């Protein structure tokens, strides 16, 4: 059948909406007049939310992409020949920064006056992020790999890296604070790996995992016959870590009696095994960590004041993941490399719907929970990209407290719409992303499928 645009102008609109790139027009004042389904899919903004609004709608603190369009309309000389090409950043609806490549052509009337502009843009975010990831990993590798498992480009993480390096260059006692799952042991390992003690042992123990009697024996050792079951002499961690680093996690859970013994070791640089009368010299670097408020525990009488000030010489706070969400794409990519690609899975990226949900989630379990989510997805994924359906249930269906604050259009879909979305995703998986075949499976037109893909924020590789 031959298409006749003159008899049916809507056909042209359907073709524009079927394009993977975003297409838009603005008037002479920089207000959006038209906004294609491709633009909706890339940015998350529907045409109803955009049309009539100023083109700086997609601006953010670090995103000035569409905002320059208004200046271009006022100063046409900025675009020789009426055409402007540029790569820039814009802000998606859910708050993520998008890297796009845009082409804008100014439109003029018969007198040569600018009456508006028409433009297209392509999403380059995945390409740019991939190159950023390579550059970051290369920089980290250049620092002897010490920070290879602590990944991040956010400002809070840059401060963490700075303080880790300062701690590594000294031999002071370090206290690492932060919520569970933020990577406190990894930070301790990084300090040791960069320090002058790196060739000596790094030993770690979770102080909350053992009762007081066993913890004392593990830390200080014991002699044969010192208690029931002590059938031989035992070397404690302080002696085993001689010359190296000892990491005590959950230090806020140790009893006052253990605190006294630890304080003596730190002050006298000597240790006495349980049941022994003689002391042994030790030379170790102590790093402790906690997810509790030690100052409050000290006020409550659970932590001795002299012990607190002995271990908190240099504090490093690890930020929770919700305070550095810009690191989520890079962390997710690293976990995919570790958990999927290293095990022979072909998964090489995250679809937009999954990334949007991950960016809007609060991550109470922090980086550890993110890693577990990616590991879960690596088991369930059937295509070459992780989608929202591959994520754990707590991420797929946010609870009421999370959903109230999310800028996630999927949370507003009805049950029927969610079911339709899952049918479309299933059809696309069965056809390996072939839209024509998927449309046939669903008994709908290809154009209708494209519109629903945009409406439901389904990411389909081009």
List keywords for this structure.
462 residues, alpha/beta, Beta-Lactamase, Rossmann fold, Helicase, Ruva Protein, domain 3, 4 domains, five-stranded antiparallel beta sheet, five-stranded parallel beta sheet, elongated
CATH homologous superfamily placement of the largest domain: P-loop containing nucleotide triphosphate hydrolases
Given as residue ranges, the uncertain stretches (5+ residues, pLDDT < 50) are 141-146, 399-407
Question: Please, how many domains?
Answer: 4
Number of E-state strands: 14
Overall shape: it is: elongated
Terminal Cα span:
26 Å
Query: CATH fold name of the largest domain, please?
Result: Rossmann fold
Total of helices: 20
What profile does the largest beta sheet have?
5 strands, antiparallel
Strand order of the largest sheet: 2-1-5-4-3
Beta-strand portion reads: 15-25%
Question: Structural class, please?
Answer: alpha/beta
CATH level 1 name of the largest domain: Alpha Beta
Mind telling me which CATH architecture of the largest domain this is? Answer: 3-Layer(aba) Sandwich
- Determine the mean pLDDT: 82
As a percent range, the share of helical residues equals: 40-55%
């Amino acid at each position: 059948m031959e298409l006749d645009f003159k008899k049916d102008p809507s056909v042209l609109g359907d073709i524009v909406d079927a394009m993977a790139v975003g297409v838009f027009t603005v008037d002479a004042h920089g207000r959006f007049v038209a906004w294609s389904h491709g633009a909706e899919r890339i940015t998350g903004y529907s045409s109803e939310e955009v049309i009539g609004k100023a083109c700086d709608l997609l601006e953010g603190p670090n995103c000035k992409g569409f905002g320059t369009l208004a200046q271009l309309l006022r100063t046409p000389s900025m675009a020789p020949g009426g055409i402007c090409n540029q790569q820039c950043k814009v802000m998606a609806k859910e708050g993520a920064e998008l890297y796009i490549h845009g082409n804008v052509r100014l439109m003029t009337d018969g007198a040569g006056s600018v009456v508006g502009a028409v433009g297209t843009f392509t999403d380059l975010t995945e390409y740019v992020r991939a190159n950023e990831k390579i550059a970051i990993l290369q920089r980290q590798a250049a620092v002897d790999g010490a920070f290879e498992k602590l990944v991040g480009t956010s400002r809070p993480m840059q401060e963490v890296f700075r303080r880790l390096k300062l701690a590594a260059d000294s031999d002071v006692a370090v206290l690492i604070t932060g919520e569970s799952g933020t990577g406190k042991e990894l930070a301790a390992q990084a300090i040791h790996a960069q320090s002058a003690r790196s060739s000596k042992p790094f030993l770690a123990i979770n102080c909350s995992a053992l009762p007081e009697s066993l913890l004392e024996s593990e830390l200080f050792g014991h002699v044969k016959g010192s208690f029931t079951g002590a059938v031989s002499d035992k070397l404690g961690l302080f002696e085993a870590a001689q010359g190296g680093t000892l990491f005590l996690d959950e230090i806020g859970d140790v009893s006052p009696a253990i605190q006294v013994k630890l304080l003596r070791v730190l002050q006298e640089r000597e240790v006495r095994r349980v049941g022994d009368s003689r002391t042994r010299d030790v030379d170790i670097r102590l790093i402790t960590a906690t997810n509790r408020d030690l100052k409050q525990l000290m006020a409550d009488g659970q932590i001795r004041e002299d012990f607190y000030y002995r271990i908190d010489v240099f504090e490093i706070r690890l930020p929770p993941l919700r305070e550095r969400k810009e690191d989520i794409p890079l962390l997710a990519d690293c976990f995919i490399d570790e958990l999927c690609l290293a095990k022979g899975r072909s998964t090489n990226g995250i679809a937009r719907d999954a990334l949007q949900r991950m960016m809007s989630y609060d991550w109470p379990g922090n980086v550890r929970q993110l890693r577990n989510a990616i590991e879960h997805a690596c088991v369930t994924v059937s295509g070459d990209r992780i989608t929202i359906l591959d994520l754990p249930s707590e991420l797929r269906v946010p609870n009421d407290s999370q959903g109230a604050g999310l800028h996630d259009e999927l949370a507003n879909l009805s049950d029927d719409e969610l079911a339709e979305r899952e049918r479309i995703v299933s059809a696309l998986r069965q056809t390996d992303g072939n839209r024509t075949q998927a449309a046939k499976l669903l008994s709908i037109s290809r154009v209708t499928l494209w519109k629903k893909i945009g409406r439901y924020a389904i990411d389909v590789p081009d």
